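Example 3.2
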Amino acid sequence: MKPTIALSSAHRSKGKEWDFTQLSDDFLPLDNSEKLAKFRSSVTPAEFSESVNLLYVAATRCRLRSTLPSNCQNYFNPPAGNVPSSLASGRR
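Structure, written as tokens:
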């Protein structure tokens, strides 16, 4: 029998997929530019890059539907006419 709920860290989710996923809110503070800048200045460029990559991995593990934390929703699903500048310019 397949489990109905599987708990996994983002690190352990690499290479796996589920029909439905739900992310917790302990990723990059994408909803707050001041917090994001503070975090970015507190880590090395490689560590920041790893944090971005980890969020990407976690957000792309679902086949059908993913529930994102509120601090990521507008980044991945921006309201019409309110595209984050990093998306509009093609950078992430």
